[in-house]
Amino acid sequence: MTVFKNQVAVVTGASSGIGKAIALGIAAQGAKLCLLGRKLDQLLAIAKIAEETSPQVVCYQLDLNVDEDIEKLKTRLEVDFGQVDLLIHSAGVITLGELKTASVKDFDLQYRTNVRAPYVLTQALLPMLISSQGQIVFINSSAGLTAKAGVGQYAATKHALKAIADSLRDEVNSLGVRVLSVFPGRTASPMQAAICETEGKTYNPDRLLQPEDVAAVVIHTFSLPRTAEVTDVQVRPFVKS
Which residues are annotated as catalytic? Predict the structure, then answer.
């Protein structure tokens, strides 16, 4: 399949979970991949798999919380590819805790990773995305729609991310850029395993969304004709009791 032939995709959070599934899924559709992350060895492992179907895969080791790293990335992408067609925001962190005890330091980290980093990265790459009339997806969370006890910090960052996506969409639709927010429920991933451990619950991945489920939604939406735009998608686990 070559739905994304000659298109360049930038993927954050590509080393595991939903980001990994999206990266491999669009690689199988012919996209060139730019994999971003701090742990180069993990990115290279994903790149090795993606190279079986993608015409080009490049790993960029950086910290998305460092503005200078994002500026350097922009320059390298302009030299290495000259364009960006797809931007997939999948990196994120979560810390649980009630407001009366939750650490402000944890809140700051979640804000920088879940809100500020995708904002700055989008801003840096937006000229190329506008030039190619590209597409952007923010992998949000069900917490970005409904905040429950113990996840106030994380939910706040995801509500903020939705606001950024909504505002951006209104700004760039007229320039030919589509913007999608995806709100998955609990998804089988290392992050979810850590959450279950913190909650004292059993991690049962078979009863959760699979990363490939979310990737399929994103790939299908990106593949739609330009007469349509999907703006928001909620996906939840479906397991018969």
Answer: 154
